[in-house]
Amino acid sequence: TPKKKETKKKFKLEPHDDQVFLDGNEVYVWIYDPVHFKTFVMGLILVIAVIAATLFPLWPAEMRVGVYYLSVGAGCFVASILLLAVARCILFLIIWLITGGRHHFWFLPNLTADVGFIDSFRPLYTHEYKGPKADLKKDEKSETKKQQKSDSEEKSDSEKKEDEEGKVGPGNHGTEGSGGERHSDTDSDRREDDRSQHSSGNGNDFEMITKEELEQQTDGDCEEEEEEENDGETPKSSHEKS
């Protein structure tokens, strides 16, 4: 019996107004999204704070005075931040007008930026110079970058040439090697000729002999002496027999 291929059925799920469970072969999904403990605690604290604020007239006198001073301090802090935001803009405009738009000085540049509370108070100030010298520096930087690019391109071209020479080089090295061997042979011949001429000029007739040649000559002389001795002994033995 051939095995049937198992095909996975695809179901389309759609939300329905009547959330009713019935016994059947239908497909359903149950989404469970519980409330996190942190959100529950925060909501409870918020409810308690609202109830406590509504019961403010019933608080003790010391607590009411403390809350008053806290509210005044918070208001002063917010007002100081707003005054700083206005003052930094005024300071920037004064410096910009005096220097003709060349110097851009910002006190607490991140005060109104979308950053954290601590990051909004750092850095303390920033200064930028936007004058003719700055334009010259930018031009010099661009020129140096262009020179570096041209140097890198020239280096790449020189490397390509060296690679091509290296590919062509091995055949030439062989010819140069054979020529060098020939030169070395001719040089050795010339040196031997010079030595022979020098010896003949001094009146001393001798030849340059290596150690191997000396050993071969000594071995040959020993063999000749042994042969002569053997030749001398054979006639004696013949005379004795006679």
UniProtKB/TrEMBL annotation:
<feature type="compositionally biased region" description="Basic and acidic residues">
    <location>
        <begin position="179"/>
        <end position="197"/>
    </location>
</feature>
<dbReference type="GO" id="GO:0015031">
    <property type="term" value="P:protein transport"/>
</dbReference>
<keyword id="KW-0812">Transmembrane</keyword>
<keyword id="KW-0472">Membrane</keyword>
<comment type="similarity">
    <text>Belongs to the SEC62 family.</text>
</comment>
<dbReference type="Pfam" id="PF03839">
    <property type="entry name" value="Sec62"/>
</dbReference>
<keyword id="KW-0813">Transport</keyword>
<feature type="compositionally biased region" description="Acidic residues">
    <location>
        <begin position="215"/>
        <end position="232"/>
    </location>
</feature>
<dbReference type="InterPro" id="IPR004728">
    <property type="entry name" value="Sec62"/>
</dbReference>
<protein>
    <recommendedName>
        <fullName>Translocation protein SEC62</fullName>
    </recommendedName>
</protein>
<keyword id="KW-0256">Endoplasmic reticulum</keyword>
<feature type="transmembrane region" description="Helical">
    <location>
        <begin position="40"/>
        <end position="61"/>
    </location>
</feature>
<feature type="compositionally biased region" description="Gly residues">
    <location>
        <begin position="168"/>
        <end position="178"/>
    </location>
</feature>
<feature type="transmembrane region" description="Helical">
    <location>
        <begin position="67"/>
        <end position="98"/>
    </location>
</feature>
<keyword id="KW-0653">Protein transport</keyword>
<dbReference type="GO" id="GO:0005789">
    <property type="term" value="C:endoplasmic reticulum membrane"/>
</dbReference>
<keyword id="KW-1133">Transmembrane helix</keyword>
<feature type="compositionally biased region" description="Basic and acidic residues">
    <location>
        <begin position="132"/>
        <end position="167"/>
    </location>
</feature>
<keyword id="KW-0811">Translocation</keyword>
<feature type="compositionally biased region" description="Basic and acidic residues">
    <location>
        <begin position="233"/>
        <end position="242"/>
    </location>
</feature>
<feature type="region of interest" description="Disordered">
    <location>
        <begin position="132"/>
        <end position="242"/>
    </location>
</feature>
